[in-house]
Write a sequence for this structure.
């Protein structure tokens, strides 16, 4: 999994690409969110536009990010939740946990930025 960071005002966007699986990147995402919360960057968006595959370990990693940010007074939201990823989030009922948006612009706007 590739992970890159962009800041849009007070909002940090983490662009995920490739596969978020047990063998490819699990652990790195939570570490990145932890460091952002430590930096007082508490408005975090996971942009899933280029994420090609997500397994149960990847879902667990996303939930861990949500928990880490929430405990630190922050919020994690999802952007570009379309296609198979959205179906997976719906089936697992994680769309009831995360605020999810079809575009990055909508997700950024939801923070009032």
């Amino acid at each position: 999994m590739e992970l890159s960071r962009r800041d849009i005002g007070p909002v940090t966007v983490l662009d995920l690409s490739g596969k978020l699986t047990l063998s490819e990147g699990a652990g790195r995402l939570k570490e990145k969110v932890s460091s952002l919360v430590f930096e007082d960057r508490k408005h975090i968006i996971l942009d899933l536009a280029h994420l090609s595959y997500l397994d149960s370990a990847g879902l667990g990693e996303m939930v861990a990010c949500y928990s880490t940010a929430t405990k630190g007074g922050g919020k994690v939201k999802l952007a570009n939740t379309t296609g198979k990823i959205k179906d997976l989030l719906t089936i697992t009922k994680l769309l009831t946990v995360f605020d999810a948006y079809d575009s990055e612009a909508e997700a950024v706007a939801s923070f009032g930025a």
